[in-house]
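Researcher: I'd like a candidate sequence for this fold, 327 residues long. If you have to choose between options at a position, lean toward the conservative one.
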């Protein structure tokens, strides 16, 4: 694992600055550009070296669902993007960055990798540019478009079974709710759906222990504060949190209230972004293989460009990474 010193030396900033960025310190006054460099280098240094392959010459567009600011708040999509870019660099494929409402959406490219949750309407809009499209983290029409996803339903079940096996009978959930950028519909989140279904089947679901906001550090903090205020001495002994930034915010709230982690409350997040290793205590989380999602998307697109006709939907496994925030 790369150290904070490694990251600081690579960027040319102090170790203290890197540490505060990785811990989402809101009192730190640095530019978004510096923050982005810290996060990107932290992710890049966690990637393994790859052997070279025969170069292929294409130009593809990476279409983003998140804005650059949203990417700083949640490194999940940044990690996928870096996986795409790493694979393209190795294969000598040129990439260009685009947004749905960006000025360069009409730039000529051989294919598109669309990262994020795109509605069917947006997918059809992109298909007017090219039929060579791979969606990552969503599957707007699996009969028509290639896609790469992770199984968050199964990942949620694995987390809950881990808690139950360790004697937890009161389990809470802190998660987010998202809407398609074109406002056509709300997005059903597989983590919250699976959480309710799995615990309901076991007679353990408690709606009052479910808190929904946005997938951000600030809302993780706010919602955990709300849970502490509402439940007091009956606060659930374990929380599954929808992503790592929210879990980091929840940890901060628990620290401020002097609630011991994991002795009183266990926390498990999702994504295993590089930041999760540097917080205190190191965060238990569901490892989502974002680099593999990105590289798989590139491989699928190359197959499409080689005139594969059958549509593929690839589901990437996840893994529970237990560190010191849960027991």
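Model: Candidate sequence:
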């Amino acid at each position: 694992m790369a150290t904070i010193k490694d990251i600081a030396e690579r960027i040319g900033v102090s170790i203290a600055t890197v540490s505060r960025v990785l811990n989402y310190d809101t009192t730190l006054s640095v530019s978004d550009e510096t923050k982005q460099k810290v996060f990107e280098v932290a992710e890049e240094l966690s990637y393994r070296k790859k052997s070279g392959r025969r170069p292929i010459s294409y130009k593809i567009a990476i279409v983003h669902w998140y804005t650059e600011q949203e990417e700083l708040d949640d490194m999940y999509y940044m990690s996928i993007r870096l996986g795409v870019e790493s694979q393209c660099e190795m294969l000598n494929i040129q990439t260009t960055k685009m947004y749905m409402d960006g000025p360069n959406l009409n730039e000529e490219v051989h294919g598109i990798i669309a990262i994020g949750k795109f509605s069917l309407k947006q997918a059809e809009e992109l298909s007017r540019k090219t039929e060579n499209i791979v969606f990552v983290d969503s599957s707007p029409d699996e009969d028509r478009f290639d896609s790469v996803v992770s199984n968050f339903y199964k990942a949620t079940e694995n987390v809950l079974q881990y808690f139950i096996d360790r004697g937890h009978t009161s389990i809470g959930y802190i998660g987010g709710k998202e809407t398609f950028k074109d406002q056509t519909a709300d997005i059903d989140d597989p983590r919250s759906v699976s959480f309710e279904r799995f615990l309901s089947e076991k007679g353990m679901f408690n709606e009052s222990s479910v808190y929904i906001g946005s997938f951000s550090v600030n809302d993780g903090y706010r919602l955990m504060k709300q849970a502490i205020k509402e439940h007091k001495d009956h606060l659930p002994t374990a929380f599954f949190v929808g992503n790592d930034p929210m879990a980091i915010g929840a940890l901060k709230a628990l620290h401020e209230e002097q609630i011991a982690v994991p002795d009183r409350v266990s926390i498990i997040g999702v994504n295993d972004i590089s930041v999760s290793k540097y917080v205190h205590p190191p965060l238990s989380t569901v490892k989502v293989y974002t680099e593999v999602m990105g590289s798989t998307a590139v491989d699928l697109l190359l197959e499409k460009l080689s005139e594969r006709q059958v549509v593929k939907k690839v589901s990437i496994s996840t893994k529970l990474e237990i560190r010191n925030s849960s027991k």
